[in-house]
Amino acid sequence: MMGWPLVRSGALHGLLFGTGWSEEELRAYQERRLCELVRHAWERVPWYRRLFEREGLEPGDIRSFDDLRRIPFTSRSDLQSLRPEEVVARGYRPEKLVAHATSGSSGAPLIVRRTPFEDRVLQAFRLQVLFRLGVRWRDRRAAVVSETASRVAIWERAGLLRYREVSCLLTSEEILTRLRGLRPDVVRGYPGTLAWLATEMSEQDRASIRPRLVTTDSETLTGDLRGRIREAFGARVVDFYDSNEFNMIAWECSAGMYHLSGPTVLGEVVHNGRAVAPGETGEFVGTALHSWAMPFLRYRQSDMVVAGPENCSCGLPGATLRSIEGRMGERFPLPGGKSIHPYALIEPLMRAAPWLRQYQMVQEGVDRLRIRVARMPGAPAVPECLALVKRVVEQSAEGRLRVETELVERIEPEASGKFRPWRSLMAGVGAGAIR
């Protein structure tokens, strides 16, 4: 495949040497990678070819990071209704790529496709950060997440980088029982889920589940959630900012700033199309430096963040974010004091209704849920769509929620600029009302 040795050599160069680069070396690598990626997208990806031609741009017009702003933004809504052959580069077969089906913090589904090599490279960069945070080769790692994998990597059989996933859709008792059995040195999970578990932990749990490090991702880590998790697990809590589109975007350093993963993503914080100053809030826009099968150039993440200083007091080079403002996950409290994670409702719905453009679940009562949905072109008739949503979600909730459905053209963001795909109005009710 034309350009494939270039893809591999550039990725491996960043993986092998990126942790020791100075600010100047990192910038040179990013700009070189950007120029290669722009030419590749222009030549091989129909969506970007049309985008560039509409703006009168050619690859030679993008020579540096400063030129990046000439490329128009791409949003999830731009990509989600396109055919795979319009967003996947020529020479790659979509059915042979690793597909990441994301429910999305914006409430709009998108299939992200990467080669197995690209997937492994991004995981390797993530491991580098974990090693920097003190993770050891023989540590036992456990992740409380929505999807669980059963495959055991070959190095795990030698006792290296052991990793087990526990479904966050289980009851708290089941999750804690599995964690007690695993006795992990490192725990990963969603902030809302880990804080919920913190309220359910017994003294036996607190004595048995004593990781050295807890990492959180995929939702906003508030001070309250951090405190609950730190107290219950007795460990340092480090937050990761990530997404299916980019894998890891940024990670929290000892000074409390989020360092962008410079060798894998070019990040911008923009408001009204312009870059904001440090300390100001804007939308995160990213360019994936190792996604060639399905490129992401100036991709709007739909997350609100606060730009950080150019020089962090921890001494590490590269751009920073002061905070991540845009994500929040909530469990829904149910009658009888039980609660349910929204993923337990969303994942079956996503499988049954691939025509969803956007969705939003609002719990209006302890047994009542309103779902607003927006459809893609070519979706079934309105009555059939709404009936399907109602039936799937009520079945997933095992009859404990009465579902009302509403069809809308689109779901507008809140005043903060953030789309919230689910929320509960039942603050202070039951085990699920952790804020």
Strand content: 25-35%
CATH topology description of the largest domain: Rossmann fold
The parts where pLDDT drops under 50 for at least 5 residues are 430-435
The first-level CATH class of the largest domain is given as Alpha Beta
Structural class: alpha/beta
- The CATH H-level superfamily of the largest domain is ANL, N-terminal domain
Measured as a percent range, the helix fraction is: 25-40%
**Over all CA atoms, what is the radius of gyration?**
22 Å
- Identify the CATH architecture of the largest domain: 3-Layer(aba) Sandwich
Shape: globular
Biggest sheet, spatial arrangement of strands: 4-3-5-6-7-8-9-14-13-12-10-11
**Tally of individual helices:** 12
**Count of spatially separate domains:** 2
Oligomer: single chain
Task: For the record, give the distance between the C-alpha atoms at the N and C termini, rounded to a whole number.
Answer: 50 Å
Largest sheet: 12 strands, mixed
